[in-house]
Amino acid sequence: MAGYYPPVGFHFKVEFTGLDKNDNDTRFQAVTGLAVEYETETVKEGGENRFEHTLPVRTKYPDLTLKRGMLHLDSKIFEWCMKAFQDREFKLSDVIITLLNEEHEPIRTWNIVGAWPKKWTITELNAENSSVVVESLDLRYQYFTIS
After folding, report:
1. Were both Cys, which of 31, 42, 53, 94 would link to 17 (CB 3.0–4.6 Å)?
2. In this structure, is residue 126 part of a structural domain?
3. 42 lies in some domain
4. Which residue has better confidence, 67 or 47?
5. Highest taxon of the source (predicted)?
6. Structural domain boundaries enclosing 125
7. Cβ pair 66, 31 in contact under 8 A
8. Would you say residue 114 lies in a domain?
9. How distant, in Å, are the alpha carbons of 28, 38, 59, 123 from that of 23?
10. Is 48 inside any structural domain?
């Protein structure tokens, strides 16, 4: 693999299945929470006092956090969130996060299954700063697969 360089983390897109397509809704500045770990259970063996056995029980996934500059109200993702928070209409959506190469071809894809909005926030509104308003969306989901 001579000449191979690890991919850059800033060229990616995010797509929500089951929501109307909107080009702005694929653009995020940050995605965090792509992780998986085992919950464990400790078992003490009778007569063995030097150590405890730690056994894997089930996998758990942290919340997925998506960040972007706040969009106008025509965002389909924003509508989906507000239906959940205001009208209590929970529609699960799969989320596809694709890391792209310099030719905009997929390098790796994370398929997030059964996502729903858990939290929506915006950054502080402060008259002393000239920063962009960033919205953060925390999603709870069942699991993800990688392809």
Report:
1. 94
2. yes
3. no
4. 67
5. Bacteria
6. 12-35+63-146
7. yes
8. yes
9. 11, 36, 33, 23
10. no
